[in-house]
User: Which sequence fits this backbone?
């Protein structure tokens, strides 16, 4: 039996895509389908994302995992040809409902990108940007404090505390990525989406970010897209495996790496495809 | 003939190259490289000699006819060049009453024909020789491909030199003529003088011949007109660019951008008469209705129309710069919950600002150098005034008026044009240098 035939046969997700207790569910995604013009990037995805958990999305390139991630804070709205169908509920409220304010949604669901993208401003202004937008600091001293806490939480404070007014672009790649995480934390979101946050970093910087994710999950719901199976197994509680736009398997991370139920998942994590 | 010889030699070299290739099989390049090499050997030296002889034709004739020219020197005030010309005219006319002149003319014609024949023979001989050289060079020891590469490099270098040398030449000629002007008019009077009236006597000894060459009113006029133009072009261009790059749909962009770029193709003369015939009277009427005194030719009209002229330039440059801001920065801002307007004003524009400034400075130097609109709409009177409703004149306009009509080439009035040109050149050059520096710094920002 070829992989394609197996895929056709087992198109619905195996494992445990939905969670039992409604309290623990942050996002519940139902029948999600995404089209870019003619091309369908995501097919019929049903998935719950647990609160204060790290959920890893893995799968070969072009499998739709980044597209799925960008549905969660409606970043796909920027792309004119992109059409999203189905339902995405955040705390039981549909984020694609017409009355939803996208700007407010993105303040609740922050995002860290594949390539570090600090603004060409000072380190301080990068962190202060979000809080200033949303009026989260009443006084300059409150803002200073917020900047410091955010940088501390991102584990960057010790390195940059004397360089706060230097341009952010002068930092190294790993520092820039932690700066972007600090920038996201600064607006106190509920969810942090991470799109391959370590793919442009060396192993040492990667280890620091992974440790940071471990600390952050006490307060935030984290969804991380990654190409590294080791990373998924190190940082995540649940793992979802995407293939050709379909969600093939979702399970607790230990389970999916030790005993995958879907043969496609097994092929991928043992390195036979992707 | 040299060309025919070259192609012939080229073909022979190719045939030869093919046979040598099959025999030895170890040539350093393809047959066509040797063929082209042979063709160049054939063509270039022959062409060079041909052109050299052609250029030296008159010199050679004078050398051959030395005695005749000396004898006939009285015909043209002793200048052998003019005598020669005379003789050539006599040949064309086919006769002259003075037998000596007629004989000399016939000798002249004979020598001329002889030079023509020898020139051709020489060129063919050299072409053949070159062909033989190229032919003999079809051997593994000669790396024809590298030679062609060097030849191509030389051609490219020569082309670059044409542009560079022309620029250097222009700068030096303007510089030297300006120095001549400054020997007649003190530089301080020129730079700081408040009065501009360049009417000087063309002939010596004429009364009241000292003109005033104070350049300040001209630069003030230039400044006012350019400032008005930038006040139109910068905001409209920048906001238009933001609309095009951030808000307009792809379809709207595809229609709007070419439409705007059509404006670039409108000749400045057309803008000029629009300014002079439509805009200036309109401003005058409007001003009088408001109770202001407005000159019928005024700086405001010229500036407004000039602003429209450089608008597409500013818009297109700003659009490029704004579009060059990485999409990741936009996404970063949006993901922090910024609205599109907040994203543009707080992230995209600051990131693009150095590029926009650079583009703005380029636009300013275009505005300063613009002539046609100002000639037609702003007038010629060198008033020292900061009121854009007055008639004004600019540096470029004065250069035009100084050089229009018959002028003695060495009068201060004419030379003043060079001094004006030099000062204008320095101003625009420094603006361009500054904008290049700013733009370069901008490029480093994302690396």
Assistant:
């Amino acid at each position: 039996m070829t992989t394609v035939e197996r895929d056709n046969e087992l198109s619905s997700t195996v494992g445990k895509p939905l969670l039992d207790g409604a309290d623990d569910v942050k996002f519940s995604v139902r029948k999600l389908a995404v089209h870019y013009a003619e091309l369908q990037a995501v097919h019929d995805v049903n998935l719950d994302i647990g609160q204060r958990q790290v959920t890893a999305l893995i799968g070969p390139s072009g499998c739709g995992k980044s597209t799925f991630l960008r549905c969660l804070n409606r970043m796909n709205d920027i792309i004119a040809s992109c059409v999203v169908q189905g339902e995405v509920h955040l705390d039981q409220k549909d984020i694609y409902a017409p009355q939803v304010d996208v700007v407010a949604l993105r303040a609740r669901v922050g995002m860290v990108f594949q390539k570090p993208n600090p603004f060409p401003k000072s380190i301080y202004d990068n962190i202060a940007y979000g809080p200033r937008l949303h009026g989260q600091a009443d006084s300059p001293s409150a803002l200073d404090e917020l900047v410091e806490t955010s940088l501390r939480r991102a584990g960057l404070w010790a390195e940059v505390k004397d360089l706060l007014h230097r341009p952010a672009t002068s930092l190294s790649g790993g520092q820039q990525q932690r700066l972007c995480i600090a920038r996201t934390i600064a607006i106190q979101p509920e969810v942090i989406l991470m799109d391959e946050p370590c793919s442009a970093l060396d192993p040492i910087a990667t280890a620091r970010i992974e440790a940071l994710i471990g600390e952050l999950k006490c307060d935030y719901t984290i969804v991380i897209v990654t190409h590294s199976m080791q990373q998924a197994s190190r940082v995540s509680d649940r793992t979802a495996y995407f293939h050709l736009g379909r969600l093939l398997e979702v399970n607790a991370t230990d389970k999916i790496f030790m005993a995958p139920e879907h043969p496609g998942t097994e092929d991928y994590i043992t390195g036979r495809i992707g | 003939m040299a060309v025919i010889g070259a192609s012939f030699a080229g073909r022979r070299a190719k045939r030869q190259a093919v046979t040598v290739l099959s025999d030895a099989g170890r040539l350093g390049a393809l047959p066509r490289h040797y063929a082209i090499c042979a063709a160049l050997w054939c063509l270039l030296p022959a062409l060079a000699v041909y052109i050299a002889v052609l250029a030296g034709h008159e010199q050679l004739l004078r050398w051959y006819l030395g005695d005749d020219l000396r004898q006939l020197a009285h015909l043209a005030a002793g200048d052998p060049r003019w005598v020669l010309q005379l003789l050539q005219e006599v040949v064309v006319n086919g006769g002259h009453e003075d037998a000596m002149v007629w004989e000399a003319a016939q000798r002249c014609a004979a020598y001329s024909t002889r030079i023509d024949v020898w020139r051709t023979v020489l060129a063919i001989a050299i072409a053949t020789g070159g062909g033989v050289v190229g032919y003999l060079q079809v051997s593994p020891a000669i790396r024809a491909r590298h030679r062609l590469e060097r030849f191509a490099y030389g051609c490219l270098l020569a082309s670059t030199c044409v542009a560079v040398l022309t620029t250097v030449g222009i700068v030096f000629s303007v510089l030297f003529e300006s120095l001549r002007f400054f020997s007649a008019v003190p530089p301080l009077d020129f730079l700081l003088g408040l009065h501009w009236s360049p009417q000087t006597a063309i002939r010596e000894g004429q009364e009241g011949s000292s003109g005033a060459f104070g350049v300040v009113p001209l630069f003030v006029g230039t400044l006012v007109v350019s400032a008005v133009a930038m006040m139109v072009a910068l905001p409209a261009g920048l906001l238009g660019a933001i609309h095009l790059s951030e808000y307009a749909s792809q379809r709207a962009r595809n229609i709007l951008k070419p439409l705007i770029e059509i404006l670039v193709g409108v000749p400045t003369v057309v803008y000029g008469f629009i300014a002079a015939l439509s805009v200036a009277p309109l401003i005058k009427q409007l001003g009088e209705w408001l109770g202001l005194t407005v000159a019928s030719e005024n700086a405001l009209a010229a500036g407004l129309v000039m602003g429209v002229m450089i608008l597409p330039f500013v818009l297109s440059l700003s659009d490029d710069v704004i579009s060059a801001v990485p999409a990741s920065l936009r996404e970063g801002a949006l993901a922090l919950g910024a609205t599109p307007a907040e994203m543009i004003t707080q992230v995209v524009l600051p990131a693009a600002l150095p590029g926009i400034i650079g583009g703005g400075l380029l636009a300013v130097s275009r505005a300063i150098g613009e002539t046609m609109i100002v000639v037609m709409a702003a007038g010629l009177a060198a008033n020292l005034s900061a009121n854009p409703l007055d008639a004004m004149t600019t540096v470029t306009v004065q250069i035009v008026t100084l050089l229009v009509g018959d002028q003695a080439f060495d009068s201060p009035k004419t030379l003043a044009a060079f001094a004006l040109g030099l000062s204008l050149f320095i101003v625009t050059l420094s603006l361009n240098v500054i904008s290049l520096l700013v733009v370069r710094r901008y490029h480093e920002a994302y690396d």
Q: What stands out?
A: Chain B has two domains: 2-142, 212-444. Residues 201-209 of chain B have pLDDT under 50 and may be disordered.
